[in-house]
Model the fold of this input.
Amino acid sequence: MCEFLLGVHPSDINCGMKIFRRSIWNTIRPVYATGALINGEMFYALKNANIHWRETHVPHYPASLDADRRQYPVILRTFKELWKLKRSRKSFAAARKNDAHVVAAAP
Done:
């Protein structure tokens, strides 16, 4: 969904392993998301600020069925946040450009 609406294409958008320079935090920190969409908003901010990023393989292990059932409220909240972010894309991009006085691109 984030790939389609936000145009970001990481292989695993919700992977918790992220390393980035502290100097870009003000540029990529989430503004709208409070839950599962945080990663999507960060990648969207990277895209809008033209900050290049790369991925490396991290092993993943399957969750239990019970853990999957508890995800429904998170999924609903994610859709709500994604809708808010999508509606405010233009103001979001403008706010990021005004806030991007310190931007560092990864080598």
